[in-house]
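About this split. The held-out portion is used to measure sequence recovery: a designer receives only the structure tokens and must propose an amino acid at every position. Recovery is the fraction of positions where the proposal matches the reference. Here is one held-out target exactly as it appears in the evaluation file.
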């Protein structure tokens, strides 16, 4: 049962992740990273103020360092489907950011567990180094098209309107359509300690899923073997009469 529940959760998270991208024809726009970007300035928690095509609420990103050439990013949010069912919950989804060139650290490669297509270009294209940052990611899907997303981040749950306008203008200068931004509701968010359902999607999730499925199959196999033994014993007893 736990394995089935976990699969349903994975479907919800995967659907939400896919919907957070805009699908376009052609190749990805060339978005330049922040020059001389210091990844230390990205570490810690950020509130997502706006993001492409999303219905999630209470969306935050938390960056931690793994090594000089890799970061871990944890996306936390509440899912609209579970909200609509009045299920109090939190959801976290963990990925990694590889830094191919430390001298151009604003351009990274993101790897998300539920993305079967592969790595995603992940670019920090704007930041003041302290209060706000802006991310653009894009992934070619076929030779004809790509999927892209962007997010405006703040160290606080809100950001001045003028700053948001400036960030969007910079993205437009890279020929990216900014009409796909959705505002994120950061009010009435549920803390993990107050939630009865905390959904964490990371590498351990799949280990637990496989383990849970294996235990279920073993239970079924044991029951089948027991039934088979019972039938065999009854057959032998009938044969001896």
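Reference sequence for scoring:
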């Amino acid at each position: 049962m736990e394995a089935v529940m976990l699969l349903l959760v994975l479907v919800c998270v995967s659907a939400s992740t896919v919907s957070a991208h805009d699908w376009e024809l052609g190749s990805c726009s060339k978005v330049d990273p922040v020059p001389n970007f210091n990844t230390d300035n990205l570490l810690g928690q950020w509130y997502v103020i706006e993001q492409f095509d999303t219905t999630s609420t209470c969306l935050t990103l938390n960056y931690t360092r793994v090594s000089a050439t890799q970061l871990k990013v944890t996306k936390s949010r509440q899912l609209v489907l579970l909200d609509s069912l009045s299920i109090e919950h939190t959801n976290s989804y963990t990925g990694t950011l590889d830094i191919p060139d430390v001298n151009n650290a604003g351009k990274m490669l993101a790897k998300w567990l539920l993305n079967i297509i592969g790595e995603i270009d992940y670019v920090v294209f704007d930041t003041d180094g302290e209060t706000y940052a802006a991310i653009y990611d894009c992934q070619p899907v076929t030779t004809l098209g790509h999927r892209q997303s962007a997010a405006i981040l703040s160290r606080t749950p809100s950001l001045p309107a003028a700053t948001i306008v400036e960030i969007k203008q910079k993205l437009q200068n890279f020929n990216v359509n900014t009409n796909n931004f959705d505002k994120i509701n950061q009010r009435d968010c549920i803390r993990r300690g107050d939630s009865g359902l905390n959904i964490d999607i990371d590498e351990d999730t799949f280990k637990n899923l496989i383990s849970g499925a294996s235990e279920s199959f073993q239970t079924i196999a044991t029951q089948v073997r027991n039934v088979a033994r019972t039938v065999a014993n009854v057959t032998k007893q009938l044969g001896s009469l």
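Annotator remark: The longest strand covers residues 57-67.
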